[in-house]
Specification:
Strand order of the largest sheet: 1-2
Number of helices: 15
Number of strands: 6
Radius of gyration: 24 Å
Shape: globular
Order of helices and strands: HHHHEEHHHHEEHHHHHEEHH
Largest sheet: 2 strands, antiparallel
Strand content: 5-15%
Length: about 475
């Protein structure tokens, strides 16, 4: 019971925290681009855009910091055996993230907030770029730590513990370089749809048209680039997972038996205890193509991998929760595909200068803000749940990582308190973001009649 409660606690706090992180990373880059345009062109609209979107960025950043700090304490509270066993390796990138990346972004975010009238435009611009770089580097070090859990490298087992022997192997872990681009482009997509949703809201109401037209255009181009990159790097990451964590990908496809060529599941209802299909619609050969870039080739199934892992790691159940893995994977991909379609259709409307005359599309965008959050959450659930029963793949099982001296009451109490506190912070974040988003940039006047009639040319934000 302690294990179940500890897993629920970490899952809930991680999901809450990851609600804020992608927007922080993606929006910091976009705000930096907006201020770059202001310094480059001298157009005051971009200064107002930078301050408006920067205010929303700061609200989200503050919430992310609060929720992130608490998470690390759980390694000592509920997962002390994990911390004891791999702490020498896992702790290093976390320490570097806190000492380097977090302090970098925290220092320069203060200079950015208070330096508008005190620093030169170029120096002030440098501060927001350093914030954006710090946020990105912070994500990198966290993902280096997580990639050790997915594919442990650079260690040796000595005296019953994993000790680091090769720091370079840790930071050049191939898993990092398929996971990091996927997370960053996902963050960009989150920020893009956040900006699009709020801009569409104001365009529908005719508010501050000059500012929100340009915000919409920038957000849309950002969305097209980000969503297409997410798809490409996500495909690369999936192919890598077929090599290093084949059980994860077999669970994502509910592939019970090895197949050559392997069919991809479009829809499957499975009998998980018996490891078989009840009903399935599959496309022949497509899974082989996705995994191997050819329509022939063996993809290992769950039953075969279970037998292989029993021989390699000893008796045990090495099959993750298949239903959760299967559907979280599809929710992630489904939300991503809808985002791509919305972005590409919006690009067509932008190039033909029709987006302001499409109220249905703009209304859809105001609701589409939830799509990246659904995709991000489903993606992380899949990443962590489909790795089970391992907390560090092939090295330590989750059941062996839980703290031995905590009681059910202790974990249940902290689970309830963390969930309530994080829930309050979530509500506060959404309330503040919605409040200031609806207020707009605080302009006193609207655009002139000629500009508010039919929109501006697609490339106007560069002028």
């Amino acid at each position: 019971m302690e294990l179940i409660l500890a897993r629920w606690q970490f899952a809930i706090t991680t999901t809450y925290h990851f609600f804020f992180v992608p927007l922080t990373v993606g929006l910091s880059l976009l705000v930096a681009l907006m201020e770059t345009l202001y310094v480059w062109t001298g157009n005051d609209v971009y200064k107002r855009m930078t301050k408006f979107w920067g205010k929303l960025f700061l609200i989200n950043f503050a919430m992310g910091v609060v929720t992130g700090i608490v998470m690390e304490f759980q390694f000592g509270m509920n997962w002390s055996e994990y911390a004891r066993y791999v702490g020498d390796v896992f702790g290093a990138p976390l320490a570097i993230e806190a000492l380097l990346a977090f302090f970098l972004e925290s220092t320069f975010i203060g200079l950015w907030i208070f330096g508008w009238d005190k620093l030169s435009p170029r120096l002030h611009l440098a501060t927001i770029w350093l914030v954006a770089i710090g946020s990105t580097i912070s994500a990198l070090w966290i993902l280096i730590a997580n990639s050790f859990m997915q594919q442990p490298l650079g260690y040796t087992l000595r005296n019953g513990r994993a000790e680091m022997t090769d720091f370079f192997a840790l930071i050049t872990n191939p898993h990092v370089w398929v996971q990091f681009p996927h997370v960053i482009t996902s963050a960009m997509a989150t920020a893009a749809f956040f900006v699009l949703a709020i801009s569409a809201y104001h365009l529908l109401r005719g508010n501050q048209l000059n500012l929100f037209r340009r915000s919409f255009q920038m957000g849309l181009i950002y969305a097209v680039i980000a969503t297409l990159l997410v798809m490409l790097v996500g495909h690369s990451q999936a192919q890598y997972m077929f090599k290093v964590q084949p059980m994860k990908m077999a669970s994502a496809e509910a592939l019970w038996e090895s197949e050559n060529p392997a069919a991809m599941s479009l829809f499957t209802i499975g009998n998980e205890p018996e490891l078989r299909d009840v009903f399935a619609i599959r496309v022949p050969g497509l899974l082989s193509f996705l995994a191997l870039n050819r329509f022939e080739g063996e993809v290992l199934g769950i039953k075969n991998l279970q037998a292989e892992y029993e021989q390699k790691y000893g008796p045990g159940d090495y099959v993750p929760p298949v239903a959760v893995s299967y559907w979280s994977f599809r929710i992630m991909i489904g939300a991503g595909m809808v985002m791509i379609l919305l972005a590409l259709y919006g690009l067509y409307l932008l190039l033909t200068n029709k987006y302001e005359r499409q109220p249905v599309y703009l209304k859809l965008l105001t609701w589409a803000v939830v799509l990246p959050y659904i995709a991000n959450s489903a993606g992380w659930l899949f990443t962590e749940i489909a790795r089970q029963p391992w907390i560090v793949f092939g090295l330590q099982k989750t059941a062996d990582a839980v703290s031995p001296n905590v009681t059910v009451g202790m974990v249940l109490t902290s689970l309830i308190l963390f969930t309530l506190v994080y829930g309050v912070l979530m509500v506060a974040d959404i309330y503040l973001l919605a409040k200031y988003a609806r207020m707009g940039a605080g302009e006193t006047g609207q655009t002139g009649p000629a500009e508010s009639a039919a929109g501006v040319p697609a490339g106007a934000f560069l002028k």
